[in-house]
Amino acid sequence: MPQRPYIVGNWKMHGTRAMLSEARAIDRAAQRHMKVEVAIAPPYTLIHPVHREAEQIGVGAQDCHHADGGAHTGDISAAMVADAGAKFVILGHSERRQNHGESDAIVHAKAQAALSAGLRVILCCGESDKTRESGRAVSFVKKQLKASIPVDHEALANGSASMSGRITIAYEPIWAIGTGNTATAEDIAEMHGEIRALLVEMFGEEQGGEVRILYGGSVKPDNAADILSTPEVGGALVGGASLTADSFMGIALAAAEAAES
Length: 261
Ligand code: PEP
Prior knowledge:
- By secondary structure, the chain is of the alpha/beta class.
- The chain is 45% helix and 14% strand.
- It has helices at 20-30, 44-53, 78-83, 94-99, 104-116, 129-133, 137-148, 153-157, 185-210, 221-228, 245-260, and strands at residues 6-10, 37-41, 58-61, 88-91, 120-125, 167-171, 213-216, 235-238.
- Helix 1 (20-30) links the parallel strand 1 and strand 2 (37-41).
- The two termini are 16 Å apart.
- The model has no long low-confidence stretch (mean pLDDT 94).
- The protein binds phosphoenolpyruvate.
- Phosphoenolpyruvate is lined by residues 10, 172, 177-178, 216-219, 237-241.
């Protein structure tokens, strides 16, 4: 059965308690669009307050540390965000990779820690403009994903691993994030098709075929319909346009319509 489109808001470093009214409005609107799975990842400080009030939307974190605990001043473990009410965590966002020097190996370790803590993982990948211009976008993204996604070979071999519900991929070309530029439908379809092929290679036909692949990068209500009806696009990871209920739910509505058409 095809999964519901997944529309996830990444609030980044935006939001104090004054933003809770926006989260409430998103939650109320999501109750009217049950054909779409809606979630937000607010800053750490708002995870618990949003979780306490949300009836419909999923609540997640924007990152977590790979260690269970210890001398890591300022960091937060996967178990801690789960304890605050997070059900998923976004990992490997390009802003973390760039601003905090996160390598594929670190993202891999974080993903492992998050899955062990019972969190779902949204794993981000995406190329820079230089890489795209050099014609290496597909090979770069595939290499990044291969090195970042944890695979439990033993569980896969004995059929007990269920990756499709636990891992979501978000393809976010770096040059499209927060710029107003979006990849063309052709480029998105090509990249998502390549990511699908890689997932099938890693997890087999059934499980690899079910992992949702989101697109992210300047998704707005007015371009969402085109992007979300592109082959292999299972939803969107939304930054700027997720900060108000009006624009975010405009995207969710486009997802509902694309799913019905
Ligand atoms: C993001 O940061 O994940 C993102 C896609 O941002 P924006 O929608 O603002 O481009």
